[in-house]
């Protein structure tokens, strides 16, 4: 009997793991690793009808906390705690539910906000660097003198490479500089030199509509971007606090695997990509032929010379942003070869290069892109960019036309 009890205890420890969430009766929640608090909650809030409703001043009161369990086909079992709030606008009650999910496989705790069965609208939007729903939110703080933690995050252009930064995790840290530009945040134990416990704070759904923001009082808030004027009825967004125990690099890989599992993605395309598996000849920024040709000859002749005179077994050639037409803000207006670059056209150059594979650069679409004549684009006057929407046909046609 004693053995059985002991076994059950061990199983319990193994299964739900080292990361835990502790919830109090006021709806406060702490994320702990081992016995240490890593994240302490602040408030739950909604901006609707141009005003804030928040749990911290009781304009968004917590009615009760409930508990269920559930099963996700990709990630398995979880326990689900529900913080139930009562949003009252002009006498109409809307139930807002903050779900906290503790996953059996112990890779983390996720937070899901269900904004209720009515659309939430504003006429005066917030800034796009802020959020108009807040759940979860956490203090950026040093918990006590023994707490030596650091963070690392991606931010800005080039997939977050341009503005990536790291520092101490305490109340004077500027972790998120701009919600629009920010990416996932990695938190780690500096005493273990980043080789032990770590967390990744990242969106878990609605990736294009949600954001992290940091307030003046150093609260990290997650939610819908502030510039959005309305949130549809029955909308749910979520954030993952992912946990791993073998350091930053391994942890980020494991986080990626969880994200891939949840969205049933594999590495199949990446693993068969010519540009990742073989040697290529690059004309990218830093390369000799980046916006530069041999003296007195054009790009076509220069590339043919490279192909014939460099005796390395490269399997593809990369043409950087010099080869196509640009429009407003240096975006792409038309993704075809310019006559001053390849006078005979891309296909003829390809023949002269003995049909070697080409990696052809593209970047954001310019506001004045020619493709907006025939396909739907969202046009952004503030940054002179254009985004193709809602039609795969644009991409199919583009690649069909570029295909040899
Ligand atoms: C969260 O952690 C703080 C600091 O350790 C503590 O004061 C508070 O009571 C904890 N709250 C919960 C819900 O455990
Ligand atoms: C960081 O690691 C050290 C050494 O293992 C440990 O004593 C400390 O409690 C850890 N800090 C946190 C915040 O987990
Ligand atoms: C945060 O950490 C930095 C680096 O150790 C230190 O200079 C700063 O005083 C700390 N801020 C607070 C509020 O502890
Ligand atoms: C390149 O491809 C074209 C079209 O498929 C073919 O006719 C030609 O023989 C190929 N050239 C070489 C060198 O393989
Ligand atoms: C738009 O479609 C017309 C009719 O098919 C075609 O002639 C024209 O080249 C297309 N324009 C672009 C930029 O693709």
UniProtKB/TrEMBL annotation:
<feature type="signal peptide">
    <location>
        <begin position="1"/>
        <end position="15"/>
    </location>
</feature>
<dbReference type="InterPro" id="IPR013785">
    <property type="entry name" value="Aldolase_TIM"/>
</dbReference>
<protein>
    <submittedName>
        <fullName>Uncharacterized protein</fullName>
    </submittedName>
</protein>
<dbReference type="InterPro" id="IPR017853">
    <property type="entry name" value="GH"/>
</dbReference>
<keyword id="KW-0732">Signal</keyword>
